[in-house]
Amino acid sequence: MMTGIIGLSKDEQQGYSSALTKALAFLRTQDFRNMPEGKHPIEGERIFALLSRYTTRPQAECSPEAHRRFVDIQYVVEGEEFLGWCPMSPDLLEAAPYDEEADVIFYRALIPESSILLKAGSYAVLYPEDVHRPGVSVLDEYPAEVTKVVVKIDLELMKQ
Predict the structure, then answer these.
(1) pTM for the complete prediction?
(2) For the CA atoms of the chain, what is the radius of gyration?
(3) Looking at the Swiss-Prot or TrEMBL record, what is one Pfam family this protein matches (predicted)?
């Protein structure tokens, strides 16, 4: 996992793959407040963005997940949420089998669990070995409205 804040440093893309550089440039240049929810192509089906607006939920209502074919960039446009995280390990118990079409596998828990706060302008890059729990309320009793973009990058592009 890697985290950052869009536009904080001129060197933020130094040494990144061209696919990651392209995805971060997309995040930096779009007006997501006026963009409709849904899928937005960046490079066909190999790099695309999913824009959503939702209310955060208590941790117990958010399922840990991981992906095999795509890297996620989870970018918060407005609002804030906790993103739970742990490295892939044999200690994790699957909640459901891997769904190849959706490229997602859900887990029962994150073991051990760490959390990072994603505020407006911040992002996390999550690789297949990064099991994560998105959409968690900062305070369980105070859900928050969030606008978030998840950019999906074909893992093969990250090797170029």
Answers:
(1) 0.94
(2) 15
(3) DUF386
